[in-house]
Amino acid sequence: MAGKMWAGRFTKEVDERVNDFNSSISFDARMYRQDIEGSIAHATMLGECGIIDMDESRKIIEGLKGILADIDSGKLQFDPAAEDVHMFVEAELTARLGDTGKRLHTARSRNDQVALDIRMNLKAETLEIIELVKSLEKTIVSIAEKHLTTVMPGYTHLQRAQPITFAHHLMAYANMLLRDLGRLRDCYKRMNVMPLGSGALASTTYPIDRQRVCDILGFDEITQNSLDGVSDRDFCIELISAISVLMMHLSRFSEEIIMWCSWEFKFIELDDAYATGSSIMPQKKNPDVTELIRGKTGRVYGDLNTLLVMMKGIPLAYNKDMQEDKEAVFDAIDTVKLCLKTFDPMLATMTVLPENMRAAAAKGFINATDCADYLVKKGMPFRDAYKITGTLVHTCIEKGCTLETLPLEEYKKLTDNFDEDVYEAISLETCVMQRKAAGGPAPESVKAQIEYVKARI
Ligand code: ARG
Q1: Shortest-distance Cα residue to atom 10 of ligand 1
Q2: pLDDT at residue 5 in the model
Q3: pLDDT for 191-244, tens place per residue?
Q4: Active site residue ranges
Q5: How far apart are the C-alpha atoms of 50 and 66, rounded to whole Å?
Q6: What is the structure's pLDDT at 19?
């Protein structure tokens, strides 16, 4: 692309190195659809307001539609020498229409143009991410529905703590993802504001109709201040924050899956299509997908930090620093989409091993709280019951048995309150079934949790 459009002001060509350094087309070309749709809306409004000739407005719109179709079909390739997608489309339009093409940029700056394009692009991406999260929610719920009575140990400090069910554990993640959906929907609201007409920074002297452009493009409302309209990127930061929290949840879930498919746990088995082997150890089956999600979470946090630091010191209004917004926000979007698209089917195809969960639940004295509660129900103060149960656990460890297999006379040595019915009270099934408080692991309670999530996705 020889000869810049601003060449009139300059006495020299831009140095090749500055050209390359300045260029953003390699990463902003992905906004071509939004750029062209935005330009069509702008040209429509310019014609309707009599700012350009109606006939020229129509030609521009047809020209832009042709460019869009040619990019879509692969007939038109992006010119890496164009500084950015906005210049590329405008130059192509002018090449096709001559002087008429040169009228498109009337009453507009690349500053409000890029502010529009990125909002339109992120709106579309946010909706896609929301759909992917909803799909993952459905997968989680459908597995939970099959495991309402699958007993497993619940952990604190990664020590076996109290019995829960696999459904209960899964629904914890369903609730986290529900909040992620809320955050994404909230981000969408604030990016759904139309900045075109802000001009370079101080709007324009032309009699434009911003509301008309807003309506054509389907935004909720127009931005209220032209300086803010061109120089705000907090909607990008909000989106990466929401994605970061979502990645944090996927990463925790991934970490648990990594543990669960180890021989030490063996609570689940990944489908062969979602695991990989080792180049040297023939026995290996590695959970690479989940490890990569855990790793990529760090990368998304990096994207968030990039934007926070990039934005914090720049004066109003537009500064070229802000061109750096795109690679970071696009990287976070691409990463989370890739993770969700892989994690969802991996989860859907994994095999759950209830016997191993149950066997783990049978060890580790996870019914000790229930044993103490048994005494409390017989009238003993909780602290005394707690102490007696601690002594019983100690006895079991010395004898190499469990609370279920410890003979009744050992119980009775500590207090007469113990009877044969203690065994029923401390059975894992009882422990789970009795925890029917709202939010608890009892099947009826988890069913209510499932209905709650279903109603909100
Ligand atoms: N490529 C630029 C960006 O992404 C477009 C806006 C350029 N505006 C300017 N005044 N140089 O930010």
Answers
A1: 111
A2: 79
A3: 999 999 999 999 999 999 999 999 999 999 999 999 999 999 999 999 999 999
A4: 157, 278
A5: 24
A6: 87
Round to whole Å and give the CA distance between 277 and 283. Answer: 8
Q: Which residues contact 184 (CB under 8 A, 6 or more apart)?
A: 126, 129, 130, 133, 239, 242, 246
Ligand 1 residue neighbourhood (C-beta within 6 Å): 24, 28, 84, 110-111, 114, 318, 320, 322-323
- Please give the number of the atom of ligand 1 that sits closest to the Cα of 326: 4
Bridge partner residues of 155 (DSSP): 160
Distance 34 CA to ligand 1 centre (A): 15
User: What's the gap in Å between 323 CA and the centre of ligand 1?
Assistant: 6
39 within 8 A of 104, measured Cβ to Cβ: yes
Asked whether the beta carbons of 373 and 400 are under 8 A apart, the reply is: no
Q: Distance, CA 107 to ligand 1 centroid (Å)?
A: 16
Phi/psi zone of residue 348: left (φ > 0), alpha (ψ -120 to 50 degrees), beta?
alpha
The candidate with the shortest Cα–Cα distance to 37, out of 58, 55, 56, 64, is 64
pLDDT for the residue 336: 98
Cross-strand partners of 154 = 162
The reported pTM is: 0.94
Q: Which residues lie closer than 8 Å to 205 by C-beta, 6 or more apart? A: none
Low-confidence ranges of the chain (pLDDT < 70): 1-2
- Give the C-alpha separation, 358 to 335, whole Å: 36
Closest residue to atom 11 of ligand 1, CA basis: 320
